[in-house]
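Page header: ASSEMBLY MODEL / two components / 621 residues total.
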Amino acid sequence: MVGVKSIPSPAISADERSHEVDHPSSQVAHFGTEQPLRLDCGVDLTPFQIAYQTYGELNADRSNAVLICHALTGDQHVANVHPVTSKPGWWETLVGPGRPIDPKHYFIICSNVIGGCMGSTGPASINPATGKVWGLDFPVITIPDMVRAQAMLIDRLGIDTLFAVVGGSMGGMQVLQWTAAYPARVFSALAIACATRHSAQNIAFHELGRQAVMADPDWHGGGYADHGIHPHRGLAVARMAAHITYLSDAALHRKFGRRMQDRELPTFSFDADFQVESYLRYQGSSFVERFDANSYLYLTRAMDYFDIAADHGGVLARAFAGIKTRFCVVSFTSDWLFPTSESRALVHALNASSARVSFAEIETDRGHDAFLLDVPEFFDISRAFLQSAGKARGLTGKKDG
Amino acid sequence: MSVQEVLPLGGLATGPSGQYRADHLLVADMVKPGSKVLDVGCGEGDLLQLLETRGIDGRGIELSREGVNRCVAKGLAVVQGDADTDLVNYPDDAFDYVILSQTLQATRQPRVVLENLLRIGRRAIVSFPNFGFWKMRLQLLIGGHMPRTENLPATWYDTANIHFCTIKDFVQLCDEINVKMERSVALDLYGRPVPLNLPWWVWNMFGEQAVFLLSRGGGK
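Prediction written out in full:
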């Protein structure tokens, strides 16, 4: 008989997760009916809330604020222990004491995006009109919507101009959207492993993930909350597929090769014989503990719709015309989700727009994920870019002592 | 056009001697303050830094990753790129000056690169090591081997330089593609300009390197 082990059920209950959805353990900004969020789809979202974390202190002239934009499955817990998983912050390699983005120098803000599931209003939140979970009744959101909401948060915090907006992948898309939508409010922009539009291949991968979620019988047409369950199998498969795209063949080979898991010989079953299989199953099952399935659908959709040039007559350079923001664009050699060619197209457009831009490609075999890992060359560049921008902004020497 | 018609440079570049390379100072003196400059093959950004001290808005392109990283660390706006392949993507008239400092000889298509420089910039400043320099000639003539100098220390099999030329060759190329030479200077072994009242073949013989300020030629 062929042995079959499916993905295990999550160790954290839906209740524990849903608590963070509406009552996050981080700070929350509430926006009442007098301040609706105008969405690209034409709907006014109101009321809504944004959950966020801050680190460091805002200086007297409010010129040292750094906004960190998280990637698809990230959240506001960029440099503190995660309340659900108890793991370190997702970008504490880059953000934290002694790191390139140091709370000693900067007032660091990271918010959960609109459509997310860690405290900002999204499909897992309670719809105030019905008293029930939004589910698929939640309006479709875009990257510009996320940025519009962030801008309202930044207003609320009393900050006019951000010293820097920093992000990778979907976070990088937000960085670019910030500069295109609010050029005067962004002094410097660090856009990592991203693109000005989502490619057909990436849309295809996202569709694969969404179909995996929707094919799960527990999904119930998006209304799983009413049934008190979560489509964790479908979401785990979506995560497994996505996770492969974040790595590279070389990195997978280096890490796992064809090595077996706890055994010498194959079991002649569909058990996880190979280490790479157990690794992926682990990635899938740990992801469903902290993430909402519908939120995954909405956020992947937002990335798919992203195309800065489309909003400017198809001419990318027009999106950045006359921009004063200082840019640093970083790509990684083995990133096949957002290959260097995408970054190059951005850099050419920025050059054509006379923007002040630096661009570096980092040599690594770790794929798209490299932006979250310990890559010293990447940190050196980030640190230097922010330091020189800080000098131009008159930041250095004030708090350095 | 011949070299004799080229206008003299008004006074030798001055500056804190020893701090900057003679050819960099020369180049910097050719750039009007307040203009926008693209330095193609900017290396570690020394020239860009010099230009910034003079209030010039400088950008750079550099092939080597290490070079780019060093430049970014100095706060310079530098992108990683290849002069041979990336210049085509730059729009016309994007810069006041495009500088090609000691890089021409490392390009695959010097002629195409030169044409691109004068399309992207209203003016171009090109400097290169002169292969007609007497020491070079001597090494090949007497020694019978490919010349190596202090400025060009690499051996023939591991050098990035693939298209060496002499001052004479370069002037010929400029004539061919209808480029106007506004200023030109040859520097001798010690970084001093070769006196302009001397015939141009003296430049070709005693100039270790040359710096040209070019603009688009009229007519044709």
